[in-house]
Amino acid sequence: MFQAAVLTVSDRGYRGERPDASGPLVCACLEEAGYPVVKTAIVPDDQPQIEAALRELADTGEVQLLITTGGTGFSPRDVTPEATLAVCRRMAPGIPEAMRYASSRVTPRAMLSRAQAGIRGGTLIVNLPGSPKAARENLEAVLPTLRHGLEMLSGGPADCAGTDSPKNGDLTF
C-alpha cells in the first residue's frame, strides 16, 4: 500500500485568512483511490519554505506520493514548480503534460499551468493547481496511472503492458 501526503501552498491559507479548500479535497480523492493520507501541511508561497516542506515530507520514507496544491500559475509568488524542480533528482514530465491535456478539454487556460512532477528518493511529487475544481480535474486525469509508476519506483514488478495500456495507439484521457 502506498501512502500519501498533501502540501497546500497558499499565503492566505498559511496565515489563516482563508480556509484551505483544495487540500482536504485532494486528501478525499486520494483516500477514495486507496492512498492513505498520513501527512498534511500548509506553507506560504515562499520557495525556501516549500522546498523545506517537500524535503521533510519526502525524506522520511513514510510517503511514496506527495501531492502539492497551489502556486502553479503566473503570479510572481507562484513558485511551487521551481521548488519542486529544486528538490527532485529526476523529473516525470508526462504527468503534468497529461494533466494539462485533460484540463485543456475543460478550459483553454490549462496551458497556463506550470505544474511539475518529479522523483525525490522513493517519493513521487506532483503539483496540482490551487483551485479545488482544477485540482480535482488534474488529479483525476493521472490518478489511475500513478499506482503503476509508484510500483516501478518502489522496485516492484513492472508490467508495462498492463490492462490499462491503450489499444491500437488509441489514447483516451
> What structural class do helix, strand and pairing data support?
alpha/beta
Strand fraction band?
15-25%
Describe the strand arrangement of the main beta sheet, using strand numbers: 2-1-3-6-5-4
CATH domain class name: Alpha Beta
Arithmetic mean of pLDDT: 93
Dominant shape: globular
DSSP E strands, number? 6
Quickly count the helices: 6
Radius of gyration: 15 Å
Written overview of the protein:
With 173 residues, the protein is an alpha/beta fold. The chain has one domain (4-153): Molybdenum Cofactor Biosythetic Enzyme, Chain A (3-Layer(aba) Sandwich). It contains six helices and six strands; from the N terminus they run βααβαβαβαββα. It has a six-stranded mixed β-sheet with strand order 2-1-3-6-5-4, sandwiched between helices. A hairpin with a 2-residue loop joins strand 5 (117-120) and strand 6. The radius of gyration is 15 Å and the shape is globular. The two termini are 25 Å apart.
